[in-house]
Amino acid sequence: MEDDRFKIYIHRLRDGKAEQISETFSSDFLGIEEEGLKFEAPVHVEGTACVSGEDFVLSLRIKTLAKMPCVVCNQFTDVPIEVSKLMHTQGLAELKSGLFRMGELIREGILLELPLIAECCSGQCPDRAALTQFFVKEN
């Protein structure tokens, strides 16, 4: 069952009203079941929703933590994910139900911010020194 906090009712935004969004969601809604990617920390969402002319406008800031294996030692490490400005605009004519569900938009925003690789200890994995013997030295 979908969390009602993901729903934005467009009729509440008429006459210049804006809806302030400040929610913390369990990461379960992300539906991530990958071997090399985990989300266990809550997802914090702040922002506003409003109607501007004939458009619905949503502006969000999102913060959470992903867990990814370190590229050096392969131990899972926390990777901060921050979407500082996620903007979504949609014509009111497209929202015939008068309802916008922001869960999928939040999920996409988070996944787009994931780095390709992660390294523990802020990029200074202690196991890196043990691997230097395998590196090719350039002249």
Can you describe this structure?
The chain contains three helices and six strands, in the order ββββββααα. The protein is mainly beta. The protein has one domain (4-134). The protein has a four-stranded antiparallel beta sheet with strand order 2-3-4-5, with helices on one face.
Task: Label this structure with key terms.
139 residues; mainly beta; two-stranded antiparallel sheet; 6 strands
Q: What order do the helices and strands follow? A: EEEEEEHHH
The helix-and-strand class reads mainly beta
Give me the Rg, rounded: 20 Å
Strand order of the largest sheet: 2-3-4-5
Number of domains: 1
The low-confidence parts are none
How many strand units? 6
Strand count, sense and barrel status of the largest sheet are: 4 strands, antiparallel
Distance between the termini: 60 Å
Topology at a glance:
Blueprint: E1 7-9, E2 18-25, E3 43-52, E4 55-69, E5 76-91, E6 99-101, H1 103-112, H2 120-123, H3 128-131
Summarize this entry quickly.
13% of the residues lie in helices and 40% in strands. It is built from three helices and six strands.
